[in-house]
Amino acid sequence: MAFQVTEIVFDRDDAAEVVAAMQNLHERGDGLGWVNLQPCLSADQFGRVPERSGLAGWFSGRGPALPLATWTPPTVGARPVPAQLGLAHGTGSNGLDRLETQGVTRPSGWVKRQDHAKHGIVMALPDNVDLLDVVGWMVAAVTGLCQVVEPGSLWQAMVHQPAN
Known about the structure:
Layout: E1 3-11, H1 16-28, E2 34-39, H2 43-47, H3 54-59, E3 68-72, E4 84-88, H4 95-101, E5 111-116, E6 120-124, H5 131-145, E7 154-162
């Protein structure tokens, strides 16, 4: 299946365009598509991201140095699958505990499926989840797990949707 990719650059305090794209994927009900979210880093910020060799990715027990948050829409019907949120990061195991100490708490009803050093965090989201809250949590979590993201940073969402 071919996917169309749309880039949305947004301010952390104005995610309306990202939420609208997520809502479109959500309303399809087929679970197809996803949204990746990362900070737009300045050259200075990017230079502060720890470098890793290609081999480190294969043999390391950690995820990427620059965290990547991903949201997938739910599937409805005979075999429903809830919307999910994933967060790949390089800070080691117990990422949710690390976020909790920074005040980034997992909202009630968000079910932890995984919190692994290399494979990241995965949570199942409730049916009635507010997508603006999801984006806000993703931004806060990526910021909390990546020391180079500054409060005024812009963000990039890559929306992957089935090509018609």
